[in-house]
Design a protein that fits this description.
The complex is a heterodimer of chains A (about 325) and B (about 600). In chain A, helix 2 packs across helix 8 and helix 7 runs antiparallel to helix 9. Chain A has a single domain, classed as Thiamin diphosphate (ThDP)-binding fold, Pyr/PP domains (Rossmann fold). Helix content of chain A is about 35%, strand content about 15%. Chain A is α/β, with parallel strands linked by helices. Chain A contains 11 helices and 9 strands. The relative contact order of chain A is 0.12. Chain B folds into 4 domains: about 210 residues, Pyruvate-ferredoxin Oxidoreductase, domain 3 (3-Layer(aba) Sandwich), CATH 3.40.920; about 180 residues, Thiamin diphosphate (ThDP)-binding fold, Pyr/PP domains (Rossmann fold, 3-Layer(aba) Sandwich); about 70 residues, no CATH class; about 120 residues, Rossmann fold (3-Layer(aba) Sandwich), CATH 3.40.50. Chain B has a 7-stranded mixed β-sheet with strand order 11-10-12-13-15-14-21, with helices on both faces. In chain B, strands 3-4-2-5-6-7 form a 6-stranded mixed β-sheet, sandwiched between helices. Chain B is globular, with a radius of gyration of 26 Å. The chains are: A alpha/beta (about 325), B alpha/beta (about 600). At the A-B interface, strand 2, helix 4, helix 6, helix 10 and helix 11 of A face strand 9, helix 8, helix 9, helix 10 and helix 12 of B.
Chain lengths: ~325, ~600
């Protein structure tokens, strides 16, 4: 793809290093106690670590509580329609290889109304990071059943308890062909930071699902994974390939079957990198197509190409 | 010969063997695998390389393979506006072709049938019947294992003899088109062509024909011959579109098929999306990135894009959206023409969302309408819908090659750092979005949004700001309206009737108005064809007042209140009771005679 852009004159603005201060924008509108605050802070921390030029960061989202994220981050970004942010964000990545694309959304955006897009964004392996802030409830619209609500969850749309089998996010993501699949919890700052940073550094379509409690409409949803509430936060130990016998017990993130088994563990399951492989990205494949096409045209000008097309119609 | 199409009348003998005629309508009826489209293609291209004008009309069955298929070509000297109401010549390959199309042949016309397959009704004396063993003649000539493959080329040879066409040019075309399939294929094709040409058809016809010499066209550049979808495709490229996405649907698909390959040659990218919504979302992602992008579809697909289209209006991003209309509602008639998506294009989203909607009047105009769409999208930061249709998309016309050097537009993302006082959504001007990669000298980075917002793009629930922003979005489209030229009127500037049309009705209305103004009881009549359907250009209301009747002719239903979609829009806009509606939904383009009869009926009834 063409990376040629109009030349930008040297900016008089000093390139300040990225910090929470430079990255903070509008004051978040989330309810006090919402898990999303922690995710926002982790995003600041990861951007601080990565130190991309500020103008090259894109924070994008669909619709939902989580999808308010772009307003709270001082970067280029957008707030799109419900469930469709992935194809929009993927096109930014494909249309502008010089920018870094982060897409945020909730369980409704990712697994319900936008489920089809998740599958296809993943299989196409477009280079971008998708953070799914899963609260297992529709919070913005005040407590309806979500695709990850457990059976029996009482909501305004299921007053006697949800009856539909919930989506298993890890299995869904593994099936779709995402090349980096991780899971974390909004109460675990260090773990979240590690997962999000790894996802950002991954070349390809990387997804982190973060359990983020909605204190207003699904209080205590993820307590089973919070040690101070009596739960257990069990992380996935990744294989070190050190030749030791205990290493064979560790998870090989390139093993799809093992990842699938991990994803089937009883609630609350494990947290960490489930899957990570290298596969050509759509960005690379499309760029290769362009390079070969350009070579075939012998780098002809647009005008010559267009004239050629009309000459064939004579 | 006796012509059914009045413009044909007046042929005089050139010599003893050739009769002169200004133009001719030939309908070829066979099955879709017989390559009858390619005969039409050869004839159209030949006409393009000669002094003749050409217009074609074809139907392809929506079934995957096989099934009846026709191609109608009208060629001749002078301006060709329609593919002809009825055929002067019918070539019937099969009995079913004969049965289905014999009544499309005008009385006195010539039926050429494959005597290997067709038995014409011996009691039908309306036509000159010419039976030729097309199938066995082809097998005999071309031989080999191709069986009857090549009988289309045999017929092309036959037509070349009947109309004294330029043999060298046709042979060269066959070489160019079939030569790429190998020497054997080209040799077999030329053998079939020669056999068709050698057939002494004049013994059955009585004489042969020759076209009158046309007035040499006053044009600087060579003639090109192509269909509407192709003209639109290259119009988009000329307009600077290098990025896009779509989902396949008939009759839109051929545009995306070409763009997928062509964009890579220009360093761009076209994505086949998982669905229609993803397609427009990809396209908007490209637009946000600073590119001029396109998405397209046909009726049902446009319905699916509506929410995202509303977002684009709110976020104020440039985008070109093409709808190659087909028969609706629902899956409707996927391979038939209709103009029933106008109201969808104008109003098909929730909320107040003033739209820009354009429509090409013929194949040539597909190229220029794409340029106009690109210009408006970039200048006014708005989505622009182009309403083409199945008829324009698939028919072939000859026209002067555009001045490409003059028209080619280059669009690059504008990454100039934005000054400290930059506002993405200023109330007193047209929004100028800053694509990612742009430094913001204020240190504040913008968010594009579908929420109501203030001038900096922050969400707002303020009713005052919502009203102001609605006005801002409306005013920019009104500003565009004011800048448009007053539509031209062909024919009488005032008088009895003005016929108004849009899209593929251009040719039939123009020819219909030409005929209404001539003949025994000429009417004072005019023709206005709207390329800008929204916003409507200035001056239309005043023009309407100069006529006793205004008839909007379109291919859609008269609706619950007796008015077609354009007529409804015009009546609501100009509140002029003289505006009447001429509608039909038979899946076919208007015949000239239908326009004339329809207009006369409306005038008589009032």
């Amino acid at each position: 793809m063409s990376t040629e852009t109009s030349t930008a004159p040297a900016s008089p603005a000093v390139n300040l290093p990225l910090s929470k201060k430079t990255l903070t924008s509008d004051h978040p509108t989330w309810c006090p106690g919402c898990g999303d605050f922690a995710i926002l802070n982790v995003y600041y921390r990861v951007l601080e670590k990565l130190q991309y030029p500020q103008e090259s960061i894109v924070t994008f989202a669909g619709i939902g509580c989580s999808s308010r994220m772009p307003y709270f981050v001082n970067s280029h970004g957008g707030h799109y329609i419900h469930g469709r942010s992935l194809p929009f964000a993927a096109a930014i990545s494909l249309g502008r290889p010089d920018v870094h694309v982060f897409n945020f959304g909730g369980d409704g955006d990712g697994f319900s109304i936008g489920g089809n897009h998740l599958t296809h964004a993943a299989r196409k392996n477009t280079n971008m990071t998708y953070v799914i802030m899963d609260n297992s409830v529709y919070g913005l619209t005040k407590k309806q059943t979500s695709p990850t609500s457990p059976i029996g969850f009482k909501s305004k749309t299921d007053p006697t308890g949800a009856m539909d089998r919930p989506i298993n996010p890890m299995r869904t993501l593994l099936n779709s062909g995402a090349t980096f699949v991780a899971r974390s919890h909004a109460a675990q700052i260090g773990h979240m930071t590690e997962m999000m940073e790894r996802a950002a550094r991954h070349n390809g379509f990387s997804v982190v699902e973060i359990l983020s409690e909605c204190v207003e409409f699904y209080d205590g949803a993820f307590d089973a994974a919070v040690p101070r509430k009596g739960g257990a936060f069990q992380t996935i130990e990744l294989r070190k390939n050190d030749g030791t016998s205990e290493d064979t017990l560790r998870h090989d993130p390139t093993d799809e079957v093992a990842a699938f088994k991990l994803a089937g563990l009883e609630w609350p399951g494990k947290f960490g990198v489930f899957f990570e492989v290298k596969r050509p990205t759509k960005n690379e494949l499309e760029a290769g197509l362009v390079a070969r096409a350009r070579e075939k045209t012998k780098n002809a000008s647009d005008l010559d190409l267009l004239k050629g097309a009309f000459a064939r119609m004579r | 010969m006796v012509s059914p199409n009045p413009s044909l009348a007046g042929g005089t003998s050139a010599d003893s063997t050739h009769q002169l005629l200004p133009d001719v309508v030939i309908r070829l009826a066979g099955n879709s695998q017989d390559g009858i489209q390619s005969i039409g293609g050869f004839l159209a291209r030949l006409a393009g390389r000669s002094e003749q004008e050409v217009m074609t009309f074809m139907t392809i069955p929506s079934t995957i393979s096989g099934g009846p298929s026709i191609f109608q070509v009208r060629m001749g000297s002078g301006e060709i506006l329609t593919s002809g109401d009825s055929a002067d010549f019918l070539v019937a390959f099969y009995q079913h072709s004969y049965d289905a199309h014999i009544n499309a042949l005008r009385p006195g016309g010539v039926l050429i049938y494959d005597s290997d397959h067709v038995k014409p009704n011996p009691d039908d004396k309306r036509f000159t019947n010419v039976g030729i063993a097309i199938t066995s003649g082809t097998i005999e000539a071309a031989g080999g294992t191709g069986k009857d493959k090549g009988k289309n080329i045999f017929v092309l040879g036959l037509i070349a003899r009947i109309f004294d066409l330029n043999l060298d040019k046709l042979r060269q075309l066959i070489q160019e088109r079939i030569g790429s399939k190998g020497d054997d294929a080209a040799r077999a094709a030329l053998l079939a062509f020669d056999a068709g040409y050698a057939h002494p058809v004049e013994n059955l016809l009585g004489h042969l024909y020759r076209f009158t010499t046309g007035t040499p066209q006053q044009q600087v550049r060579p003639t090109v011959t192509t269909d509407g979808n192709t003209a639109l495709t290259y119009g988009l490229i000329a307009a600077g579109v290098r990025y896009g996405a779509a989902y396949p649907i008939t009759p839109w698909s051929s545009i995306m098929e070409v763009l997928r390959t062509e964009f890579t040659r220009y360093g761009g990218l076209f994505i086949q999306a998982e669905d229609e919504i993803a397609a427009i979302s990809h396209a908007l992602g490209f637009a946000y990135s600073g590119h001029l992008a396109v998405t397209g579809s046909s009726g049902p697909g446009l319905s699916l894009k509506m929410e995202a289209l509303g977002w684009a209006g709110m976020a104020e991003l440039p985008l070109i959206v093409i709808n190659v209309q087909r028969g609706g509602p629902s899956t409707g008639m996927p391979t038939s023409v209709e103009q029933s998506d106008l109201l969808q294009a104008l109003y098909g989203s929730h909320g107040d969302n003033p739209r820009v909607v354009l429509s090409p009047k013929n194949v040539e105009d597909c190229f220029y309408i794409a340029l106009e769409a690109g210009r408006i999208a970039l200048e006014y930061r708005t989505p622009v819908i182009i309403l083409s249709d199945q008829a324009i998309a698939t028919r072939i016309e000859a026209f002067e090659e555009p001045d490409l050097a003059k028209h080619l537009v280059q669009v690059k993302p504008d990454l100039t750092p934005r000054p400290a006082d930059f506002k993405p959504y200023p109330l007193d001007g047209i929004s100028r979005h800053a694509p990612p990669g742009t430094k913001m000298l204020s240190g504040k980075y913008p968010t594009v949004t579908g929420l109501e917002h203030d001038e900096l793009g922050h969400p707002t629930g303020s009713p005052v700001l919502h009203a102001k922003m609605n006005a801002k979005r409306r005013e920019k489209i009104k500003q565009l309206a004011a800048s448009l030229p007053v539509p031209e009127v062909y024919g009488d500037e005032s008088g009895e009737v003005l016929v108004v049309g849009w899209g593929c009705t251009y040719g039939p209305i123009r020819e219909g108005v030409m005929r209404l103004r001539s003949g025994d009881a000429p009417l004072q009549a005019g023709h206005m064809h709207l390329r800008h359907l929204s916003p409507l250009p200035p001056g239309i209301g005043e023009i309407f007042k100069r006529y006793k009747h205004v008839v909007a002719a379109e291919i859609n239903d008269e609706g619950l209140y007796g008015y077609g979609q354009l007529a409804s829009l015009l009546r609501a806009t100009y509140a002029n009771p003289a505006i009447r509606s001429l509608c039909k939904t038979d899946g076919l383009v208007y015949k000239v005679s239908e326009i004339i009869a329809g207009v006369k009926k409306i005038i008589a009834a009032v």
